[in-house]
């Protein structure tokens, strides 16, 4: 068949599908249109887009936002996918119509397997199971009193971090090969901490590295595996090798995580009372899962569901936080005057006790440190999209039609990093804005966006990140101690490179390298 006839046929089919979809619309929505979007080549264009992960579309949506305004529609695969780039429209959706905008789309073939058929918090549909799993995480692990019980673990991990940095920067020389690469140290430190919170025991370094390796392998391949979601019945044959790779990683993950889960279950069955006598005993996340009773299925969690929840906990709690921490430190290396202010603020609280570390109680008295972290989350939000929503019913917002089951994505960087309506000179790094209440009428900054969205690094609304208090605690505690222990300096002749790269989250393309000099206090 000639090329022009293929084009003609696909144009006709596309026009027919669009007309059909329009006819299916309830009459009261008949006069409203989907948010505008670019013309893409019918069917073939949709298929090409569907092969990509939505994360790869960010630069394209950024440009479409300039052209089409607050919301734009792309036809990806067989559904319209709407991207919201405007904070007031996001507020109408996520806060004012939170119940309608809290569903998740049906998972693709790969996520169906990794999430144990949508039995983790992130992918669960908005309903009783999701509510139970989320409430369990918040009340059993992230509640302030429970968080306190992990403080010895944070101290232990801080020591691992400091020892690792010291080892790499032996003698604190200024030779370039003695510069430290923070990323590797901080990623491992966060895994030590989250593995302990998840499985309870202080595991040895080899075991923690095994968990880190397999979790990172899964995380870093997520975008590559995205193509498998598209027409799995076909890709099972056409992309057999890639499916094989996916199952290989899954098998490795099971071989590392399942024994840890089983050990902990055995310990529980043998009677926790003995374990509780150990002064290092902590309630682990996995302990809270064994007896949970799923209301939708009227049964306990199965082992693959527990593994998926543990994996979610490890991924969500390590990658975002260690990545954000690296961005904070990159800014402090780039702007030594800001680093000096952070140090002076800490010194004002901790005093001259050389051996003392910054404690968690000290953090309450360090508003400038908190402002530095908020400014980093505004300028470099690790997640550029909040998780996609699927609509429960048709809606009209701002005169746009949002059809039932459409997939809605919210652009995080458009609301925060680049919004000059809220933030004066938005691309500059100025922590002071969070002290004088810029964009917030002089009041303490409300990151939940419940009254108005100014930025949303943790999302907003009913599915806002449940780990935000834990993340802020980890960021404040480790940054404070890294600055208290060392002066961080750029490597001679090397500018801190702020170019970004999309991995699981947006990371520094060139990981931060810096010289560290122990402080004389
Ligand atoms: C700097 C650190 C972090 C950032 C920037 C971050 C960001 C986010 C974002 C943007 C979402 C999507 C929210 C939405 O869909 O509206 C999310 C969801 C989630 N986060 Fe975080 N997060 C961080 C740390 C953590 C930690 C430490 C944990 C727990 C250990 C965690 C657990 C979760 C979970 C379970 C969800 C799914 C919530 C739901 O669907 O109800 N996150 N996070």
UniProtKB/TrEMBL annotation:
Q: What is its main location?
A: membrane
Compartment annotation: Membrane
Which positions, given as ranges, span the membrane? 6-24
Q: Which residues does heme bind? A: 465
Record keywords? Heme, Iron, Membrane, Metal-binding, Monooxygenase, Oxidoreductase, Transmembrane, Transmembrane helix
> What are the required cofactors?
heme
Q: What InterPro entries does its record include?
A: Cyt_P450, Cyt_P450_CS, Cyt_P450_E_grp-I, Cyt_P450_sf, Plant_metabolite_P450s
Record's PROSITE patterns?
CYTOCHROME_P450
Mention one GO molecular function: oxidoreductase activity, acting on paired donors, with incorporation or reduction of molecular oxygen, NAD(P)H as one donor, and incorporation of one atom of oxygen
CDD domains, A to Z: CYP77_89 (cd11075)
SUPFAM superfamilies assigned to the protein according to its UniProt record, in alphabetical order:
Cytochrome P450
Gene Ontology cellular-component annotations: membrane
PANTHER family the record matches: FLAVONOID 3'-MONOOXYGENASE-RELATED, P450, PUTATIVE-RELATED
Q: Which family does it belong to?
A: Belongs to the cytochrome P450 family.
Q: What is this protein called?
A: Cytochrome P450
Species this protein is from: Citrus sinensis (Sweet orange)
């Amino acid at each position: 068949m000639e090329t022009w006839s293929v084009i003609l046929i696909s144009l006709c089919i596309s026009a027919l599908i669009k007309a059909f979809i329009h006819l299916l619309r309830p009459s009261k929505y008949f006069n409203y249109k989907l948010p505008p979007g670019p013309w893409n080549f019918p069917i073939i264009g949709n298929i090409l887009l569907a092969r990509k992960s939505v994360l790869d579309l960010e630069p394209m949506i950024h440009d479409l936002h300039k052209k089409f305004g607050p919301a734009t529609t792309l036809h990806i695969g067989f559904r319209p996918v709407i991207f919201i780039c405007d904070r007031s429209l996001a507020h109408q959706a996520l806060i004012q119509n939170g119940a309608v905008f809290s569903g998740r789309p049906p998972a693709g073939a790969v996520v169906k397997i990794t999430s144990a058929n949508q039995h983790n918090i992130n992918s669960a549909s908005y309903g009783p199971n999701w509510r139970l799993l989320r409430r369990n995480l918040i009340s059993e692990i992230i509640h302030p009193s429970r968080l306190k019980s992990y403080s010895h673990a944070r101290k232990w991990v801080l020591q691992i971090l400091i020892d690792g940095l010291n080892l790499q920067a032996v003698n604190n020389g200024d030779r370039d090969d003695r510069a430290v690469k923070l990323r590797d140290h901080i990623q491992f430190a966060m895994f030590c901490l989250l593995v302990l919170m998840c499985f309870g025991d202080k595991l040895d370094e080899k075991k923690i590295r095994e968990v880190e390796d397999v979790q990172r392998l899964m995380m870093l391949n997520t975008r590559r595996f995205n193509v498998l979601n598209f027409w799995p019945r076909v890709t099972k044959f056409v992309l057999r090798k890639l499916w094989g790779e996916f199952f290989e990683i899954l098998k490795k993950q099971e071989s590392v995580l399942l024994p840890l889960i089983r050990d902990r279950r055995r310990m529980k069955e043998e009677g926790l009372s003995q374990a509780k006598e150990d002064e290092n005993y902590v309630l682990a996340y996995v302990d809270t899962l064994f007896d949970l009773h799923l209301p939708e299925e009227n049964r306990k969690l199965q082992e693959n569901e527990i593994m998926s929840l543990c994996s979610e906990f490890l991924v969500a709690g390590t990658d975002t936080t260690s990545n954000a921490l690296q961005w904070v430190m990159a800014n402090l290396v780039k702007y030594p005057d800001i680093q000096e202010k952070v140090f002076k603020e800490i010194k004002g609280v901790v005093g001259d006790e050389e051996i003392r570390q910054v404690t968690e109680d000290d953090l309450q008295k360090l508003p400038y440190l908190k402002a530095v972290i908020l400014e980093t989350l505004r300028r470099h939000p690790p997640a550029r999209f909040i998780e996609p929503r699927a609509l429960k019913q048709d809606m009209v917002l701002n005169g746009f039609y949002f059809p039932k089951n459409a997939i809605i994505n919210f652009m995080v960087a458009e609301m925060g990093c680049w919004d000059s309506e809220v933030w004066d000179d938005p691309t500059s790094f100025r922590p002071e804005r969070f002290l004088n209440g810029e964009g917030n009428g002089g009041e303490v900054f409300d990151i939940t966006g419940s009254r108005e969205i100014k930025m949303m690094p943790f999302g907003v609304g009913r599915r806002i990140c449940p780990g935000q208090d834990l993340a802020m605690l980890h960021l404040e505690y480790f940054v404070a101690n890294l600055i208290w222990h060392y002066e961080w300096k750029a490597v001679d002749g090397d500018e801190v490179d702020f170019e970004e790269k999309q991995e699981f989250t947006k990371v520094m393309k060139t990981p931060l390298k810096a010289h560290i000099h122990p402080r004389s206090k």
